[in-house]
Amino acid sequence: MLELHTVTAGYDRNAPVFRGVSLSVAPGEAVGLLGPSGCGKSTLARVAALLHRPDAGTLHLDGTPVRRWRHRAPRDQRTAFGVVFQQPRLSADPRLALADLIAEPLRATGRRDEAAGRIAELSATVGLTADLLARRPHEVSDGQLQRACLARALVLRPRWLVCDEMTAMLDASTTAALVRVVEEYRAATGAGLLAVGHDRVLLDRWCGRTVDWATLTASGTDPSTRNEQSPTG
Amino acid sequence: MSMADVAAEKTGTVWRSRGGGRRSTRTLRLRTSAVLLTATVLAVLLVPPLVQLDQQAVDLAAKLQAPSLAHPFGTDDVGRDLLLRCVYGLRVSLLVGVAAALTATVVGTAVGAVAGALGGWVDRGVMRAVDTISSVPHLLLGIFIVAMFRPGVWPVVASVALTHWLSTARIVRAEVLSLRARPHIDAAVSGGASRWRVTVRHLLPGVLPQAALAAVLMVPHAMWHESALSFLGLGLPTHTASLGNLIQEARGSLLAGQWWPTLFPGLFIIVPTLAVAGLAGAWRERINPRRRSELML
Predict the structure, then answer these.
(1) What pLDDT does residue B287 have?
(2) I want to staple B23 with a disulfide (CB 3.0 to 4.6 A). Which of A3, A81, B18, B19 is the partner?
(3) Is the pLDDT of residue B1 over 60?
(4) Which phi and psi (to 5°) does residue B41 adopt?
């Protein structure tokens, strides 16, 4: 169970992006989070994936309270999350070929001998050819790069997936292909999903439960404190 | 003709008409710089082992001779050949410049990367220390450092390196801070990468081009510092031919109207400086064509 309770977070303590947000995702559940641009849903996704330390509130991961974020979080907690970001260009290290990009988490966690097998397996799943795997991010399209980013998110077999506007920049067929990969992975492993987006039709079709940002914050947030220039949208 | 051809032709035309004249001067500058720098480095590397002449050979009968065929740069006040002295001097000055620039860049990159990657109070503490050190004029600080040791090459290297890593540390820290906020670093953290791995594998490769450019630009700057220290009598021992020492020794004869003992060592400082600046400018334009700012030396 992934539980966020009355979380307040932002990039400036005096002006948090949101206050008092509570949300929970059960194992195997797919929760869609809908909200307008700049409301703080990406920040919430980063808090949920242990990438951004909230100013207040608690996060429980399978009943254990999380007290540390980013590098300070224990490695097995961090790697329990597979994260896919909105902009594949920015979320891929420009110096790594796609194969290295996908294998990077395995190498970072000392499991480099599994890399070849996992790359072959995942590139088939997400639909990347050997030719594309040898290229670097600037030599492939956004859609192809996002496929590699999804493969990277799945390579450590996470128990939770956080997809932050994963398909916002992609065409319909790539969107369908990526969503299918996520759903196949979830069907096989029972992973929970938090999908953030602004496309109600897509999230309603994709997720078992869709939550509107307005209902999460109705109790706690003063709309005047919304940070319209939040760097992560 | 297909659409792609039309587009290619169009961009080609635009590019030619906009950059034509400037591009040829740029190429000329790049080639001149490359030729001059290669000549300098070859002279420094090849002349001492190949030419069997003693740069210290004194010939009092031929003292203070104007440039001639026998002595193209003339002779100094004890009749030593200035061309040979200049080449040996340049050798010492370049050695000091390169060693000091490398040391300063390694120290600066390490400090900047640690401050930027760790952030928080480490960053604040380190950068305030950097501000404090750079508030002291660096020639003064350099003089203080050489004064602690016996005259020699390595105290001069230490003096220049220890006062010049600060700007590199600032550049590297700023680059690391901007890289650190990118989602690909978030992705690496989520993929279980340690702080060390994120720094070494994802942050440092991103700042290396900037650090390398800073290092190259620091070589002539360090040469100037070596000359300044030697000119003040604080750098290399006076018998060692360095460009600063040569100018220092020639001061007296300049007043008597002998211009060659100061002019040629001076040119030997200026020419490599301009050549390095020309190459670095071309390099920077290639890395970042939008930023055509002037180079600071």
Answers:
(1) 66
(2) B19
(3) no
(4) -65, -40
Q: Are strands A2-9 and A18-25 parallel, antiparallel or unpaired?
A: antiparallel
Quick one: average pLDDT of B37-56? 80
In chain A, where the domains are located:
1-80+160-168+185-228
d(CA B107, CA B169): 8
Task: Identify the pLDDT of residue A104.
Answer: 92
User: Considering CB atoms only, which of B186, B193, B202 is closest to A83?
Assistant: B186
Summarised one tens digit per residue, pLDDT across range B175-186 is: 999 888 889 999
Residues A93-134: tens digit of each pLDDT: 888 899 999 999 999 988 888 888 999 989 999 989 989 999
Q: Kindly determine whether residue B192 and residue A105, on different chains, have CB atoms separated by under 8 Å.
A: yes
What's the gap in Å between the CA of A232 and the closest CA on chain B?
9
Structure tokens given for A33: 């989070």
Third-level CATH fold of A1-80+160-168+185-228: Rossmann fold (3.40.50)
Chain A interface disruption, residue of B175, B184, B202, B204, most A CBs within 10 A: B184
Chain A residue closest to B186 (CA)? A51
Ordered domains of chain B (ranges, CATH): 34-47+71-286 (1.10.3720.10)
Contact B191 A79 (CB under 8 A): yes
Q: Which residues of B touch A152 (CB under 8 A)?
A: 187, 191
